[in-house]
Design goal:
Largest sheet: none
Order of helices and strands: HHHHHHHHHHHH
Distance between the termini: 10 Å
Radius of gyration: 21 Å
Number of strands: 0
Amino acid sequence: MWNRKEVKEKGKANFKKNYGRSVLVALIYSIFFISTSSISSKTSAEQLQNNLETNPDFVYIFMATMAVLSALICIMTILDIFLLNPLEVGCMRFFLKNQDVEGDFGELGFAYKNNYLNSVLALFLRSIIVSIFFFLLVIPGWILTYSYRMVPFILADDPNVSAIDALKRSRAMMKGHKWNAFVYDLSFIGWFFLSFITLGIVGIFYVNPYKHNADAALYQAIRG
């Protein structure tokens, strides 16, 4: 069984040996995967009725706006599936390589050049499965999130693995490790709070790259 303290110490050491690149790659990851925006509508039926009564053209404006927003959502979904998912594998490839040698920025393009469609399909399936279970029941959704936690690292480690096998391997790897991985994540809560109160500055220059390197060390520890 892996030791949480040893995993974090290894991640910290490998982060510090390649500080600048680790910070930049973690920042790229944060920009595309952690900083999310949502579009919400708070317009009630009564408000819509009032707008229609005061402005007959409102319905056309509303329909046009919704059409544009729907198109943007479709475009962003396509970009997420075909562009950002392989980039996530590339980021994990960097942190994984950084455990043994100094990771290089070239690793970010790893999935685009190595079994690209497998990365696209595997992460798409992971998102669909986890989203369905979150929609049905929150707790099973969290459990599946940890079950498939290692999928990007598996794809980064073995570009020849199929999408289905990557999901199966992750579930097998995380069997008996999900709770310990959850406790491991909780051990960073103090750092995340410090990042929050410093408006993300500590997160950018220390916490995020440290956590990603530690996550790569965790993958290696579980993989054995």
